[in-house]
Write a structure and sequence with these properties.
This protein is mainly beta and 66 residues long. It has no helices and 5 strands. The chain has one domain. It has a 3-stranded antiparallel beta sheet, with no helix packed on it.
Length: 66
Amino acid sequence: MSTDERTCRDCEFYQGGAEDKGHCHFNAPFPSLKSPMMNEKFFADASITWPQVQPTDWCGRFKSKT
């Protein structure tokens, strides 16, 4: 398999969203802060999300869908 075929789009962990982005389900979701300050409103200011990736991205954790 060439590196062209080892993109997020072809990976078992990839969940496509919009045409130009999706989410990687290899790692657990994490807080995405709207502001860099951690305070008592930390969870109110954060949304929990899967890591966002491009369909053409790639990493060393690739696992083929087939």
